[in-house]
Amino acid sequence: MSSIAFLHPDLGIGGAERLIVDLALALKDCGHSVIIFTSHHNRDHCFEETNNGQIPVITAGDWIPRSTFGSFMAFWAYIRMIYLTIYLILNYRFDLIICDQVPSGVPILKAFKHKCLFYCHFPDQLLSKHDSFLKKIYRFPIDFFEEWAIGYSDMILVNSYFTDEVFHRTFKSLSNISTKVLYPSVNFNKSIPEKIPSTLNTKLKNMDAVFLSINRYEKKKNIELAIEALKALYDKFNYVEEKDRSLIHLIIAGGYDLQNIENLEYAEELNQLAKRLRIKPHVTFMKNLTNEQKQFLFQRCTAVIYTPENEHFGIVPLEAMYMSRPVIAANSGGPRETIINNETGFLCQPNSPESFAEAMHRFIENKTLSNQMGAKGHDHVIEKFNHQKFKNELNKIVTNLILINQHE
């Protein structure tokens, strides 16, 4: 049995955190000892596996600021990760350390001869807007450091072929370094309850169509597109009477951290957008879903709307299809590798409310389409994104890395 540590910046309930938890659970199932090290772990805002003892979590450095008056978040994230890495080195020794998102600790790990695997969700520099001269100056050393630090990894995994292509296009000095694609998966061992009580049940049971958007309340997730698509649906297909509109509902749900200013501001922006478009009665906002609430919404919805453009992978479409729900997503990035267009969902023109509205209308027009596509989606996920395959491949990668380290 090998000992493996994960270094992750803030352990919340986003897609990256879901993947880290799934990686840890998979390796634990394979007999490895695992611990997650993080700068922040809010037990009221995390995945249950990190709260119930399944995956041990050690927190260090939460006293370090996240930002300076809402700015310099990337800088402080790098500082927090450096502190977390030093804390780990001074107090523990592991056979392998897996890092993701913030690579600032990787060179330090290698200086102390730790074996390190870096899982790249997406280049951080592409997730930040370089929209002013001062921002470009601020980001230049951070972007340079990101590329330099990742280069010290013993192995680099990426979450999709799309990310693999972007990785080599972005990090030109790493063009000769080989990467390996390891798709995330959905854990098929989780139970799917047939009926879950919900306060929404009464409100939704008589609806003709319920569309569900699940994403963290972050601007890069482009959630406003779902609201604008609902408005375009009403206008384009002549749902002018309130009695017709009331049969179609949109649920916006996702991770929401009170300590994250962007979450607070963006949630309010979305609320105001729904009011401004005069469709607020037909939009329900939910935050920090429990597993039971999430599964209920997947079961009850007609289709899932996935709005990010050029999303590096996207675990939500996999979860939706596994729950036999079709997905409406942008025809870009990771969803092109997970969704079969016109079979398990619809790939629409990115950032086009009208294109998304047309896909939504097809489910309203054909009442059997949702179940037909959902069944195909379920089979597709089990066949291509099998959790056992994911676990076996991960275990093989990790075991080989550790054996190489032991023979050096």
UniProtKB/TrEMBL annotation:
Compartment annotation: Endoplasmic reticulum membrane
Source taxon at top rank: Eukaryota
Signal peptide boundaries: none
Pathway membership, UniProt: Protein modification; protein glycosylation
GO molecular function terms attached to this record: GDP-Man:Man(1)GlcNAc(2)-PP-Dol alpha-1,3-mannosyltransferase activity; GDP-Man:Man(2)GlcNAc(2)-PP-Dol alpha-1,6-mannosyltransferase activity
Annotated GO CC locations: endoplasmic reticulum membrane
InterPro entries with a match to the protein in the record: ALG2 (IPR027054), Glyco_trans_1 (IPR001296), Glyco_trans_4-like_N (IPR028098)
Major localisation: endoplasmic reticulum
Keyword Nucleus annotated: no
CDD domains per the UniProt record, alphabetical: GT4_ALG2-like
Keywords: Endoplasmic reticulum, Glycosyltransferase, Membrane, Transferase, Transmembrane, Transmembrane helix
Membrane topology: Single-pass membrane protein
Enzyme Commission number(s) from the entry: 2.4.1.132, 2.4.1.257
Catalytic activity: an alpha-D-Man-(1->3)-beta-D-Man-(1->4)-beta-D-GlcNAc-(1->4)-alpha-D-GlcNAc-diphospho-di-trans,poly-cis-dolichol + GDP-alpha-D-mannose = an alpha-D-Man-(1->3)-[alpha-D-Man-(1->6)]-beta-D-Man-(1->4)-beta-D-GlcNAc-(1->4)-alpha-D-GlcNAc-diphospho-di-trans,poly-cis-dolichol + GDP + H(+); a beta-D-Man-(1->4)-beta-D-GlcNAc-(1->4)-alpha-D-GlcNAc-diphospho-di-trans,poly-cis-dolichol + GDP-alpha-D-mannose = an alpha-D-Man-(1->3)-beta-D-Man-(1->4)-beta-D-GlcNAc-(1->4)-alpha-D-GlcNAc-diphospho-di-trans,poly-cis-dolichol + GDP + H(+)
Function: Mannosylates Man(2)GlcNAc(2)-dolichol diphosphate and Man(1)GlcNAc(2)-dolichol diphosphate to form Man(3)GlcNAc(2)-dolichol diphosphate.
Family: Belongs to the glycosyltransferase group 1 family.
Protein name: Alpha-1,3/1,6-mannosyltransferase ALG2
